């Protein structure tokens, strides 16, 4: 007699794994949204700190994020949040908007 799994046992195990995956998938997607939002908030704070550094070194307030990128205070990849929102400078303060 050969030892091993029958096809029925394999189907049952795969069905259980698929059900567990389907139950946890919405939670994973929800956590991704929370992470993206927190990442965007953190990036806005980084830009705000670079605005302050720019003001201290040049005695001017930057009017756009391009000024910070061109002077080397930010990287071009820091122009957008992980969730796709664009960071802009208004009144000397950074904010994210779609």
What does this structure look like?
This protein is mainly α and 98 residues long. The protein has a domain at 33-97. Helices cover 59% and strands 10% of the residues. It has 2 helices and 2 strands. The chain has a two-stranded antiparallel ribbon. A hairpin with a 2-residue loop joins strand 1 and strand 2 (93-97). The radius of gyration is 24 Å and the shape is rod-shaped.
First-residue to last-residue Cα separation: 65 Å
**Low-confidence region ranges:** none
- How much of the sequence lies in strands comes to 5-15%
Taking Cα atoms only, what radius of gyration do you get, to the nearest Å? 24 Å
Helix content class? 55-70%
Number of E-type strands:
2
Shape: rod-shaped
What is the H-and-E element order? Answer: HHEE
Major pleated sheet: 2 strands, antiparallel
In DSSP terms (H or I, runs of 4 or more residues), the helix count works out at 2
Q: Give the integer mean of the pLDDT values.
A: 90
Strands across the major sheet, in which order? 1-2
Structural class: mainly alpha
Give the topology.
Blueprint: H1 7-58, H2 65-70, E1 86-90, E2 93-97
Antiparallel strand pairs: 1-2
Q: What labels describe this entry?
A:
98 residues; mainly alpha; two-stranded antiparallel sheet; 2 helices; 10% strand; Competence protein ComGC; cell membrane; membrane
